[in-house]
Hints:
The protein is built from 15 helices and no strands. The chain is mostly helical. α11 packs parallel to α13. The protein is elongated and about 80 Å long.
Amino acid sequence: xxxxxxxxxxxxxAVRTGDSGDAHEALRLFEQLLPDQRRVLDSDHPDVLxxxxxxAxxxxxxxxxxxxxxLFEQLLPDERRVLGEDHPAVLTxxxxxAxxxxxxxxxxxxxxLFEKLLPDQQRVLGxxxxxxxxxxxxxAxxxxxxxxxxxxxxLFEKLLPDQQRVLGADHPAVLTxxxxxAxxxxxxxxxxxxxxLFQQLLPDQQRVLGVDHPNVLxxxxxxAxxxxxxxxxxxxxxLFEKLLPDxQRVLGADHPDVLxxxxxMAARTAEAGHxxxxxxLFEKLLPDxQRVLGxxxPDVVCxxxxxxxxxxx
Length: 313
């Protein structure tokens, strides 16, 4: 086996390691590979650029967003110089820079980067390319993050039919967009429409993703929540009571979503007129919330306020 072929084999092993779910080991393998590739192939070889991309990618997957962003930003000018402005790898790196910019908390800058990227992707890849659809999703999501709920809803609503046509009605990305449409419908103040959208989404998610998928559990939570918001506290309480054991089984007792469900059960119990039962639920919830989240978060303070209120009933 030639030295170049050996490098290719090592790269493939690193890729498979990452695909198997071991981000840290994949990162280690790519970092070991890079200096040998540079020695044998030269720093501008496409394989070297690909390995640098993989190092940046797996750095992000290993939960170091700032380091990943820095690595992608260092890679971009070299890819542009070697591959050309319109090369798909360049567009992918620009997408990653925008994404990791959002992940370090700069949604507005990320939105600008995605908006600049979109027309170039559409020109090079075509309007129906899956990566174009992903960028459109990211633009909608970042619009939401900067506080423009109406714009986010409009962008998701425009995206949905194109995703359905290109990807198919059952594609997970389509289900995610439908969930976003339902959520942002609620956030602009239309609770009944949001509830209906979540109710329409649930059976499709259950069929495609399985009844225990976290997204299915989230939709069930949203149905219960918005059932309460439209004024049916008793029905909401029943839905939360049915949801809780499934969330505990799938996510674990200390998962924030489980604690959120317990909070909603207690609140809906109070709203249904059962002050003593609600007080007991809040008193059991409080130490678990404090143990998991600490004593100062707003939701802990809210539980304490509920307890004081119910003690006076």
